[in-house]
Amino acid sequence: AGRTEWDVVETLPDFQWVGAEKGLLEPIDFSVVDKSLVMPGEDMVTTYSIPQVLFAEVMTYNTKLDPPPQGWSDLYDTKAFPGNRVFDGDDVQATMESALLADGVAPASLYPLDVDRALKKLTTIRDQAMFFETNAQGEQFMSDGQAIMGMLPDGRAINIRNNGAPVQIQYNATIMTWSTMVIIKGAPNLTAAQKFLAYTLTPEAQAAIALAYTYGPVVPKALDLIPPERAKILTGGPEMKGKAILRGEKWWSQNLAAATEKFNAWKLG
């Protein structure tokens, strides 16, 4: 309507392509915003977006499991690890990705995603799969032992562990993604918006977020400003280094609707 109110919006990564295709975004001025500070990662920086923070889905398991699960294949091995598995019912991405990784697909070959193969693998645990509608519900399933393992947001898994739940995290099974900062087309304060985005990529600003919550910095230099014990629990920190898989968000931006339709049909089947 030509009455843009917002200057900067934080979104999930798919919007950096969807918004650009629909003409909803202003290009980033990289003479103001220093993109060289950002960690390596395909598509993390685009003409219309910069990343803001990292977050992840991690395998969370009950500590009574002995030996503990070691990776993706164990998440789908109901003989060695009998019991319910929990997944986010709205996170089609992590659920399908976990299935393919458990089925032996190499991380480098994950995309384009084979949706049918993922659903076939999920069928092997259909009777043991539980899908939560809210993160709080997912926490509850793991806290009270309704599920013996599953995929939870890393901040939620750390939260219930810190609150005394008998759970632990297996970082060998981690899917990492990021949030995106964009400037809306027609932003009333465009110059200030560009300067603000430049500020969000300073190590100091990135470290401040990481000290407030478990979101990890997208600027590696920020880790120099974070105590080692704090860095250990951050998304993308030392515990995840070399283990986390960075999600192919561009593929999902083009295929999420179709994959979700198939996934929902599978759940009803």
Question: Could you walk me through the main structural features you see in this protein, from its secondary elements to its overall organization?
Answer:
By secondary structure, this protein is α/β, with parallel strands linked by helices. Strands 1, 2, 3, 4, 5, 6, 7, 8 and 9 form a 9-stranded mixed sheet that branches. The model has no long low-confidence stretch (mean pLDDT 96). It is 35% helix and 20% strand.
Could you give a short description of this structure?
The protein is an alpha/beta fold. The chain has helices at 15-21, 72-75, 92-102, 115-123, 135-143, 154-162, 190-200, 203-212, 228-231, 249-268; strands spanning 8-11, 25-26, 50-62, 85-88, 129-132, 149-153, 167-184, 216-217, 245-246. The chain starts with 7 loop residues before the first strand and ends with a helix.
Spans with pLDDT under 50 lasting ≥5 residues? Answer: none
Strand content: 15-25%
User: In this structure, how is the largest beta sheet organized?
Assistant: 9 strands, mixed
The average pLDDT value, as a whole number, equals: 96
Number of helices: 10
Measured distance between first and last alpha carbons: 43 Å
Number of strands: 9
Shape call: globular
Computed Rg: 19 Å
Q: Percent of residues in helical segments?
A: 25-40%
Order of helices and strands: EHEEHEHHEHEHEHHEHEH
Structural class: alpha/beta
